[in-house]
Amino acid sequence: MTSTPSSGAAVDQLAALVRKLPPSCGPVRLVAVDGHAGSGKSTFAGRLAGALGGAPVLHLDDLATHEEFFGWTRRLRLQVLDPLGRGETARYDPYDWELRRFGAPRALEPAPVVLVEGVGAGRRALRPALALVIWMELDAADSWVRGRHRDGRGLSAFWDDWTEAEIRHFAEDPSRPFADALVRQVPEGYEWLPGPSATARTTHSLTERDDLTPPP
Question: Is the pTM of this model over 0.90?
Answer without folding.
Answer: no
